[in-house]
Design brief:
This protein is of the alpha/beta class and about 775 residues long. The chain has four domains: about 290 residues, no CATH class; about 70 residues; about 140 residues, STAS domain (Transcription Regulator spoIIAA); about 140 residues, Jelly Rolls. Helices cover about 60% and strands about 10% of the residues. It has 27 helices and 16 strands. Strand 6, helix 21 and strand 7 form a beta-alpha-beta unit. The two termini are about 35 Å apart.
Length: about 775
């Protein structure tokens, strides 16, 4: 993607950059704010990941998680990973907890020694994951991950969210992380109150869009309530605090025993667990990397090779493993906060430094956090990851059951598509909750392949036409039509077929970028486009902004106002540059506007004030002065204001109309989509006059119109009294009708070609 606006610069002006000291101070504030917000999350994920090792591993777990996040972020930044913050995420922490629980029975020795051996084995798995991620980047195959269908991604994120809520629930009730809820334990009322306050404050701050990060405000509210309850109610059943993070000497002092290593690594089951863990982590981290990189690059208007990002994140995981940390993947909220908060290139290094300083200098700050408050914050984050489609789609489908028999084939197809997407999302989310994240990734991968083969294997761009090949339905004077035929290559019409998601929208953006140097305007015909997800909608907005920044016009057509897909794109584009995002209900209208803009740039006057003379019209070609006088004598001049109807479908044929000034459109009754549009000089209404049948369409004035109306009886008198003149008129009418048939044939041929491609794709041809 071409960089159009430097980070931090205003779109509308050229304000000088702030002084260096101010930029440095701003970067420091951004780094400190981000680290303060995400340090408790990383510490909590450490507690979750190593909870099977017991409560004694709590402080080291938090310390190693914080250190690993700092090392991973710094390594990725130095290795060229852009502005991606590598934190310990919910999915990877849950995966690590599953691995730790599975390894413990396979490691001999006393519990303390077994714990450190398990931690070392986990580090081996993380190194393997990091090497796989880097390998994906070097081989160029990591980008395939971004073609994961949206329902699969939605199911994975929903499953992670549900697991995060379930994992946080014990802490919210006054128990601890890593154990199921124990109904036998008495309810800790103070802990529940602290958790509720944290959730409520975080939700309120999110709704109000406060400048201070909502999670940080929620945790502060939880700490404040815990302190108040401890002072005012000595008998309150309060939650324990998380403890003070520490760096264990056993890890860094080389005191790990060697015998358990030898015994553990000799077991094939251990290698199987580590291999599955490494593969699953590599897939999830690669998807997080590519999604975060796409969002950040879109915000900064720059493009970075996907392979380079993956290599950097692979090295970051290796470094985190060496430091004893958790597997790391880019955190989108943290990365956005750093990327949009400061223009400094290595702002992530500052974030990593502050995170390390919190651990090494003031770890006690985290020690005041109640477990219930941390659980509440994690539960809120998990709940936000759960997609509402899990219950919205079944409700929508249930409402549609009574209308099933009367529904159109298209509506039934839409319901079937919704049901299939919901089934995929529910299957992946359910697998994550009941089987485990690793199993959910494998099931999601299998479903992704099936969905990809079914509907997304073909290029989403069905056809690309130049304005010389596919012009608008407006019939123009010969001289102007010849100009458009000659210069129409400056207009492109891109037809979309299929769903728009991360991969297909990215491919569309690449195709449009290749078109941009050779055209002035492009119309993206979305009539045959399927669903669009949030990532694709964002890419559509960013592409429109890029075209606008270069002075070119990109129009998305055929999604009417209030179409949910258009609403999604327009919502995301609310903060875009003014005038960048354009929608037209009708692709033909968009093509006409592009042609008018092209004519204006070429200096062609298409708004003649004076009406045409009869001799300049198509029906009067080849007529001499006397014949034109006879035609004029039988006609009456009529004027119509913009929007006025000349005749309606079903009306009797009373006259044919010769347009002298203005533009006349034809449309079917009850619709706004036009069938054709005629410029001055064209005759309309002649078919009903010749056949005697009622009008087949509605004619209306697109602009103020002046026309000659030749009544049916006058036309019949000319045929009877002046057969030679009538023969010339009929010949000119036949030539005009042949031009229309030729245009219709071209449109039908293009439509048949599109239908053929669709049938071939559906049949696997």
């Amino acid at each position: 993607m071409t960089q159009t606006t430097p980070a931090g610069a205003s779109r509308g002006g050229h304000a000088p950059p702030p002084p260096r000291w101010r930029r440095t101070l701003g970067a420091a504030a951004t780094a400190a704010s981000g680290a303060a917000t995400h340090a408790p999350e990383n510490a909590a994920y450490g507690l979750m990941a190593l909870a099977p090792l017991g409560a004694a591993f709590g402080p080291p777990a938090m310390g190693l998680a914080l250190l690993g996040a700092a090392v991973a972020s710094a390594t990725a930044s130095i290795a060229g990973g852009g502005r991606l913050v590598g934190d310990a995420g919910a999915a990877l922490a849950l995966l690590t907890a599953t691995l730790v629980a599975a390894l413990l029975p396979l490691v001999p020795g006393p519990p303390a020694e077994a714990g450190w051996t398990v931690l070392a084995l986990v580090a081996v798995g993380i190194v393997g994951a990091g090497l796989l991620i880097a390998l994906y980047g070097l081989l160029g195959i990591g980008a395939l991950v971004k073609f994961t269908p949206y329902p699969v991604r939605l199911g994975l994120s929903t499953g992670v969210g549900l697991l995060l809520v379930l994992s946080a629930l014990p802490a919210m009730l006054g128990q601890r992380f890593g154990v199921p809820v124990d109904p036998a334990q008495p309810l800790q009322a103070g802990a529940v109150a602290v958790a509720a306050a944290t959730v409520g404050a975080t939700a309120l701050a999110t709704w109000r869009r406060t400048r201070v990060p909502p999670v940080l405000l929620g945790l502060l509210a939880g700490v404040a309530l815990q302190s108040a309850l401890a002072l005012a109610w000595s008998g309150a059943t309060l939650s324990a605090t998380v403890g003070v993070p520490e760096l264990p000497a056993a890890w860094f002092g080389g005191a790990l025993p060697s015998a358990p290593w030898t015994n553990a690594l000799a077991q094939p089951a251990v290698w199987g667990l580590l291999g599955g863990f490494a593969f699953t982590v590599s897939v999830i981290a690669s998807l997080d990397t590519l999604l975060a990189a796409s969002v950040i690059d879109g915000r900064l208007r720059r493009s970075r090779p996907a392979g380079r990002e993956l290599v950097a994140q692979g090295l970051a995981n290796v470094a985190s493993a060496v430091a004893g940390g958790l597997p790391a993947s880019p955190s989108l909220p943290a990365s956005l906060g750093q990327a949009t908060g400061s223009p400094e290139r290595h702002i992530v290094l500052g974030y990593a430094a502050v995170l390390a300083a919190i651990l090494l200098v003031v770890p006690g700050v985290l020690g005041v956090l109640p477990l219930a408050a941390v659980g509440g914050a994690l539960a809120f984050l998990g709940a936000r990851m759960v997609s509402p489609t899990l219950w919205h789609i079944p409700v929508d489908l249930a409402r549609g059951v009574p209308r099933w028999r009367a529904a159109s084939r298209r509506e039934r197809g839409r319901w079937g598509h919704l049901a299939a997407d919901w089934a995929v999302t529910a299957a992946v989310a359910g697998s994550a909750v009941f089987l485990g994240l690793a199993e959910a990734v494998l099931i999601g991968a299998a479903l992704a392949v099936l969905l990809f083969v079914q509907s997304n294997i073909r290029d989403v761009v069905g056809a690309v036409w130049s304005g010389a090949e596919r012009h608008s339905l407006k019939t123009r004077p010969t001289a102007i039509a010849e100009i458009l035929q000659r210069e129409g290559r400056r207009i492109a019409r891109v037809e979309i077929e299929g769903a728009l998601f991360f991969g297909t929208a990215d491919a569309l953006r690449d195709r449009l970028q290749r078109l941009a140097p050779t055209v002035d305007a492009a119309i993206v015909d979305l009539r045959r486009a399927g669903d669009v997800d949030v990532t694709a909608a964002r890419i559509l907005v960013e592409t429109a902004e890029d075209w606008h920044a270069t002075g070119k016009r990109l129009v998305y057509a055929e999604w009417a106002a209030h179409d949910p897909r258009r609403d999604l794109v327009e919502t995301l584009g609310a903060a875009a540059a003014p005038g960048a995002l354009h929608f037209e209900d009708d692709a033909d209208r968009a093509a006409e506007q592009a042609e008018d803009a092209l004519l204006e740039r070429l200096g062609v006057d298409r708004h003649d004030v004076a009406p045409l003379a009869l001799a300049e019209t198509t029906i009067a070609r080849g007529l001499d002065h006397n014949e034109r006088a006879l035609l004029t004598a039988g006609s009456a001049t009529r004027t119509f204001t913009r929007g006025e109807v000349l005749f309606r479908a079903g009306d009797p044929a009373d006259a044919l109309y010769i347009c002298l000034r203005g533009e006349i459109g034809l449309r079917l009754p009850g619709t706004t989509r036009r069938l054709a549009s005629f410029a001055p000089g064209v005759t309309i209404g002649e078919m009903a006059v010749l056949s005697g049948a009622p009008r087949s369409a509605e004619a209306f004035a697109e602009t103020d119109v002046t026309a000659l109306a030749l009544p049916v009886d006058a036309f019949e008198r000319l045929r009877r009294d002046h057969p030679e003149l009538a023969g010339k008129l009929l010949g000119n009418i036949a030539l005009q009708l042949s031009d229309r048939v030729r245009m219709l044939t071209a449109d039908l041929a293009a439509r048949e070609a599109r239908e053929g491609r669709t049938r071939d794709a559906a049949s696997g041809a």
